[in-house]
Design a protein that fits this description.
Blueprint: H1 5-40, H2 42-64, H3 67-77, H4 82-118, H5 125-150, H6 154-160, H7 163-178, H8 183-204, H9 216-241, H10 243-250, H11 253-264, H12 267-284, H13 289-311, H14 318-326, H15 333-350, H16 355-359, H17 363-415
Length: about 425
């Protein structure tokens, strides 16, 4: 297989920019969580964690889950019909607002109702309410990021993706100086920065959001497409994050901690996968026809497999890594990390391939894959987690990730006709993905 190294070099540079931005943002978020945990204690940190979880899930439904539709439709029209591309952005923003406001209002009402019933002190009310309001701000900020992604401005994307967490961290000394360093102001500042960054981002993007005209047909098309990636994203987040709460429920906090420690060490590989998806989606969205999609899959699959093989030696550094970061009390985390690590490599190899399903306007197939994998997680967890604790949760997640990877390969073989056709002729547009 010939590889166009200039294309691979450009992709590597763009992925590195996105990866650096996401890792920086994640590290700053960890610093913020550490500050809250140490300054306020376990009880308030638990409330802060509830706020963050609600914000993440809300943003996943209203923000990140809708972004593939924005990127796909913009990339399709950017060069051939710039006016249509602008309409995609303005209508996508309108759709996010039209969906977000009623969902947030309903979420606040329902969430506050259950929060008041859960505790006589009403301690859960503020985290729930601010989490829902903040999730809408995060979704709007996510829209800005999706525009930079769609326009392939990955330098700007890399700088902006960690901006909110950067502002949160530098806001801590201000709160400390004013004597307001407590849970409420910390959560409120977090929400404020999302909306402030959104306003600034929209101002920067104003040349690309001009001439707004509501297009009902385009709104319907965006909603029809975007609901499937949103569902797929939600299934994946549940699959990845349910291990800790389930272990807390069926085992104990120690098993949850052992699993959580191992899971936290996977951040680098998962961010590498997400960074690849971020840089590839606008490129893959411009492919047309089965031949170009087949060419992309055939040329890219070996590259991702090589990357995964190159990362395999990290398995042998699991013991010193875990003990150095967490201490000897986390000896049992070592096999948990090793099992989970294999699953993340499977995701790294196959996840960038599913993007052609979006190009083929068949996003429901990826939602089906993710839903099936989540169902596999539930079934495997039912048998493995109660009896084997953290180790059982690790095997459960590995099984779900492997089911997911195998399903992606199987569906692509069928959808792209690999079983029915010979090696495809490489089309001119597919040449742009030779290095992928």
């Amino acid at each position: 297989m010939q590889i166009k190294w200039t294309g691979l070099k450009a992709l590597s540079q763009q992925t590195a920019l996105v990866f650096a931005g996401k890792m920086t943002g994640a590290c700053l978020g960890f610093v913020m969580s550490l500050i809250v945990a140490r300054w306020m204690g376990p009880e308030e940190f638990g409330l802060f964690s509830l706020f963050i979880v609600i914000l993440i899930f809300g943003n996943d439904v209203l923000g990140d889950g809708l972004n593939p539709g924005v990127v796909r439709f913009y990339a399709m029209n950017r060069r051939t019909d710039p006016a249509r591309a602008t309409a995609v952005l303005t209508n996508a923003l309108a759709l996010r607002i039209l969906l977000g406001i009623p969902i947030v209002l309903l979420g606040v009402a329902v969430g506050v109702h259950f929060a008041e019933r859960a505790s006589t002190s009403h301690a859960y009310v503020s985290p729930v309410m601010l989490g829902m309001v903040g999730s809408f701000g995060a979704a709007l900020w996510s829209f800005n990021l999706s525009v930079w992604q769609a326009r392939e401005e990955f330098g700007t994307y890399g700088l902006m993706v960690g901006l909110v967490n950067f502002l949160r961290v530098i806001g801590v000394p201000i709160l400390l100086w004013t004597g307001w360093l407590s849970l409420g102001p910390v959560m409120g500042l977090h929400v404020f920065f999302y909306y402030a960054c959104t306003a600034w981002g929209l101002w920067l993007l104003r040349p690309h959001l001009s001439n707004f005209k509501l297009d009902k047909e385009l709104l319907r098309e965006l909603l029809r497409f975007s609901k499937w990636p949103a569902m797929a994203s939600l299934f994946f987040i549940l699959q990845v994050n349910l291990g800790v709460p389930v272990l807390n429920y069926v085992a104990d906090a120690r098993e949850a901690g052992l699993y959580g420690a191992g899971s936290s060490l996977l951040m680098g590989v998962d961010f590498l996968t997400v960074s690849l998806l971020t840089t590839l989606l606008p490129k893959v969205s411009q492919l047309t026809g089965l031949e170009q999609c087949r060419s992309y899959v055939q040329r890219s699959f070996p590259v991702y497999a090589v990357i995964a093989v190159a990362l395999l030696p990290f398995l042998y550094f699991a013991r010193p890594l875990v003990l150095a970061l967490f201490g000897p009390a986390y000896e049992s985390t070592i096999p948990v990390f090793q099992i989970l690590f294999i699953g993340t490599l499977g995701t790294l190899v196959t996840h960038p391939l599913y993007l052609v399903l979006y190009t083929m306007n068949r996003p429901h197939l990826f939602s089906l894959i993710q839903g099936s994998a989540f169902l596999g997680w539930i079934i495997a967890g039912w048998f493995l987690i109660p009896g084997y604790g953290a180790l059982g949760a690790a095997w459960t997640t590995l099984i779900a990730r492997m089911l997911q990877s195998l399903a992606i390969v199987a569906i692509l073989r069928h959808a792209l006709g690999f079983l029915r056709s010979a090696k495809p002729r490489v089309s001119p547009l597919a040449e742009g993905t030779r290095g992928i």
